[in-house]
Write a structure and sequence with these properties.
- This protein has 329 residues and is α+β, with helices and mostly antiparallel strands.
- It folds into four domains: 60 residues, Winged helix-like DNA-binding domain superfamily/Winged helix DNA-binding domain (Arc Repressor Mutant, subunit A); 50 residues, no CATH class; 81 residues, Roll (SH3 type barrels), CATH 2.30.30; 80 residues, Alpha-Beta Plaits, CATH 3.30.70.
- The longest helix has 17 residues.
- This is Putative DNA-binding transcriptional regulator YafY.
Length: 329
């Protein structure tokens, strides 16, 4: 049987592991009587842990939320996961939490056993971060936008687009999405009556927030797809529609890596909505699919495909023509 201090730590660990325990379950786990469980719960309450109880034949206990943050009991893998998360948080470019993050990392590292500390040090030394630093975003702005999304309140803000154009927007905010080192706010633009995504580092909220609204159902995957599509379209100077003589899933397997949209057009064909920085690069990329395709639009892309057709036909001719073979005979 564990001594009292060790048993209290074990009891606290159990209460943190799941939402609720019956007194019988806790007694079995600790190998003590239910009466001892009640006494141990009272001891934890005396030192500040908010433990709620429910009445009944077996009773039940739940670790509540208190005014302070109680110590957490972590196993080695949980400690490593938190430490790696703190290291990774630096790449999210959220400002205002630098000192808190560094302090938490230091405290956690000092408490870790040497073998676990060595795992973290090895990970840090062997990891190279991108030298490209995305724009910083204040933590206070992110939490404010998250609360507005959660409360389903309209948001008005001033916005600066990628080309520097300024505008004033009013949206029904739905999600914050972190994509490629940048934070985006996804919402329904009321003036355009459509989904739009906005770089958080380019917006400045206006107060107060607007009236509440009934949110449009939207899954997390839908939110990521909408933001990804919006970013791709914003960065593409050329947009195109191309019909492939292939099932949609086969084209999507490759197109999704480049954030392009694929719509099924029957069981054996599909339409690819794609973009690029020029018709030359887009035509070359389409040819790499090794499948028949038809450019629906724009006309400039069709013409560039004809240019490539003539170039490849010329490259595929036999360098020694029949006339030249007779001359060499």
């Amino acid at each position: 049987m564990l001594d009292t201090p060790a048993r209290l730590l074990r009891l606290l660990s159990l209460l943190q592991a799941r939402p609720e325990w019956s007194s019988t379950e806790l007694a079995d786990e600790l190998e003590v009587t239910r009466r001892t469980v009640r006494r141990d719960v009272d001891r934890l309450r005396e030192i500040g842990y908010p433990i709620n109880s429910s009445r009944g034949s077996s009773g039940g206990y739940r670790l509540g939320s208190g005014g302070g943050l109680p110590p957490l009991l972590l196993d080695e893998d949980e400690a490593v996961a938190i430490a790696l998360g703190l290291q990774r948080s630096a790449s999210t470019r959220v400002t205002g939490l630098e000192e808190a993050g560094a302090s938490a990392q230091t405290k956690l590292r000092e408490l870790l056993p040497p073998r676990v500390r060595g795992r973290l040090d090895s990970m840090q030394l062997a990891t190279e971060h991108s030298r490209h630093a995305p724009p910083e975003v204040p933590a206070a702005l992110l939490t404010s936008l998250a609360e507005t999304c959660h409360r389903h309140e309209r948001l008005r803000f001033d916005y600066r687009s990628h080309d520097g154009a300024a505008s004033r927007r009013e949206i029904e905010p739905h999600r914050l999405v972190f994509l490629d080192g940048r934070w985006y706010l996804l919402g329904r633009d009321l003036d355009r009556d459509d989904w739009r995504s906005f770089r958080v580092d380019r917006l400045e909220p206006r107060t107060p927030t607007g009236p509440r609204f009934t949110p449009t159902p939207l899954s997390d995957s839908d939110a990521r797809e909408l933001v990804t599509r919006g970013v791709t379209e914003a960065l593409s100077t050329i947009r195109a529609r191309v019909r492939f003589a292939l099932p949609a899933d086969r084209v999507a397997a490759r197109a999704n890596a480049y954030r392009q949209r694929v719509d099924a057009d029957g069981p054996d064909a599909c339409v690819l909505h794609c973009g690029g920085d020029s018709v030359e690069t887009l035509a070359w990329w389409l040819g790499s699919f090794d499948a028949d395709f038809t450019v629906l639009d724009p006309p400039e892309l069709r013409e560039q495909c004809r240019v490539l057709e003539r170039r490849y036909r010329s490259a595929g001719t036999d360098p020694c023509s029949p006339d030249e073979e007779e001359d060499h005979a």
